Amino acid sequence: MRDRTRYLYLAVILAAVAGVVVGFVAPEVGKELKPLGTAFVALIKMMISPIIFCTIVLGVGSVSQAAKVGKVGGLAIGYFLLMSTVALGIGLVVGNILDPGAGLQLTDVAKQAAEAEAAKGGEASTVDFLLGVIPTTLVSAFTEGQVLQTLLVALLVGFALQAMGAKGAPILRGVEHVQRLVFRVLAMIMWAAPVGAFGAIAAVVGSTGIKALQSLAVIMVGFYATCLLFVAVVLGPLLWAVARINLWSLLRYLGREFLLILSTSSSESALPRLIAKMEHLGVSRPVVGITVPTGYSFNLDGTAIYLTMATLFVATATGAPLTIGEQVSLLLFMIIASKGAAGVTGAGLATLAGGLQSHRPDLVDGVGLIVGIDRFMSEARALTNFAGNAVATVLIGTWTGEFDKERAGEVLAGRAPFDEATLLDDEVEQKQPPAAEREMTAV
Questions:
Q1: How far apart are CA 241 and CA 217, in angstroms?
Q2: What is the CA 14 to chain-centroid distance, rounded?
Q3: Rounded distance, CA 40 to CA 46, Å?
């Protein structure tokens, strides 16, 4: 499967380049290709509700299971929620400062939104909003594509399964199987990504020329810089303050794992090695066994930054920037919806589309702008997610008194090298979370 996803990666890159060429050489032809991008986005929209439902239901169940182990689980969940919020906040701040989509004005979305609002008779009241979140039936949220309604139903189902205890375990396993099916369908849809990227990029370049490439370059460079900023300014000082461990020494120790992630665009591909290396570093096995698998679903710092910056880019590029209130409410939505958005190609795009659908449905078609460059940003997402989980494991181990600092000093100094022969496949498979059974593709 990895080899096949490499072909998809190359196909998207070639399609994006071809779209740029067509947009420059034949602008009018490029504009006519826009329906290709729109059709691909429609396929992604089709998957929003089932993905949100499955990930939230399983996410709530995972919180319950992690909390059962006591102090370690509680600390891990609390830390993951805090750092996800920080990452989302940084993404919003940097996105507003860079404003990468400024000047494109690709559509008259802002005018359409204003006309739609006027047709409704002004702003809806709080009561109207709350009533709109409540679906007509338990399943109508799925058939009508209402993301907030789906989120409400998913939370209710998740908490109900928690209350059922052991009796709810078979249902959770059933949702897990449904999630695998949904992600398999999504993986099939993603093979249409080259066509969607070609049409979307050709249309954008055909309409705006060099401005489109400049804006895409700004969002990509800005995203990489923001991820680096998060790791260096947030994770680094925190790791030193709590565990007296130098961040760059830890990252150098995990160098081979970072190379593996770069070659696969997936942080999950390095999951077995992270478990083994964290234990070798001096973190106790119980802490590693709880923190690492949970972090792979709940501690997605790179994905969080990507979701906020990509949302702001789409909104600005389409001429309908989000207000501060909309950005704050979007942040709250992403804190919940981003959990479990890793492991499968397209899950990030679906979550991005879900956020736009819940707050500004008129902007969802703009997701096509991101398709062509999404794969270029996947490495930064995966590397940041991986670094965040490595740091989290050391921090949780320190806070619970389950981290041997002397052992860590020897390992990081090179006096206790990691023995590759200890990484046995049969042992590692038992430690992998359900998510690791999915397609090992871009995070």
A1: 35
A2: 24
A3: 10
Which whole-number Å values give the CA distances from 184 to 62, 176, 178, 394, in the listed order? 21, 12, 10, 34
Average pLDDT score, the chain = 76
Instruction: Please write down the HEC assignment for all residues of 357-418.
Output: HHHCHHHHHHHHHHHHHHHHHHHHHHHHHHHHHHHHHHHHHHHCCCECHHHHHHHHCCCCCC
| Contact between residue 231 and residue 50 where contact means Cβ atoms under 8 Å apart | no
Residue 386 CB coordination number (10 Å): 28
pLDDT in tens, 120-169: 444 444 555 556 677 777 777 777 666 677 778 888 888 888 888 788 88
Between residues 240 and 4, the one the model is more confident about: 240
Residue 212 contacts residue 23 (beta carbons within 8 Å) = yes
* Span 31-88, pLDDT tens digits: 888 888 778 877 877 877 787 788 778 767 666 666 666 677 788 888 988 898 898 8
- 3-state secondary structure (DSSP) of residue 283: strand
Which residue segments constitute the domains of the chain, with CATH numbers given?
2-437 (1.10.3860)
Check if the beta carbon of residue 435 is closer than 8 Å to that of residue 271: no
Q: For the residues of 167-228, what is the DSSP string, one character each?
A: GGHHHHHHHHHHHHHHHHHHHHHGGGHHHHHHHHHHHHHHHHTHHHHHHHHHHHHHHHHHHH
How large is the C-alpha radius of gyration of the chain?
22
Other Cβ atoms within 10 Å of 317 Cβ, number: 30
| Count of CB atoms situated within 10 Å of the CB of 167 | 9
Amino acid at position 357, single letter: Q
Name beta bridge partners: 283: 403
For 373, the token pair is 């460059």
Q: What is the largest CA-CA distance in the chain?
A: 71
Reading the block at residue 310, the tokens are 């990509």
Angle (deg, nearest 10), helices 271-281 and 405-412: 110
C-alpha span between 234 and 354 (Å, rounded)? 28
pTM of the model: 0.70
Q: What is the pLDDT of residues 425-443, one digit of tens each?
A: 434 444 444 443 333 333 3
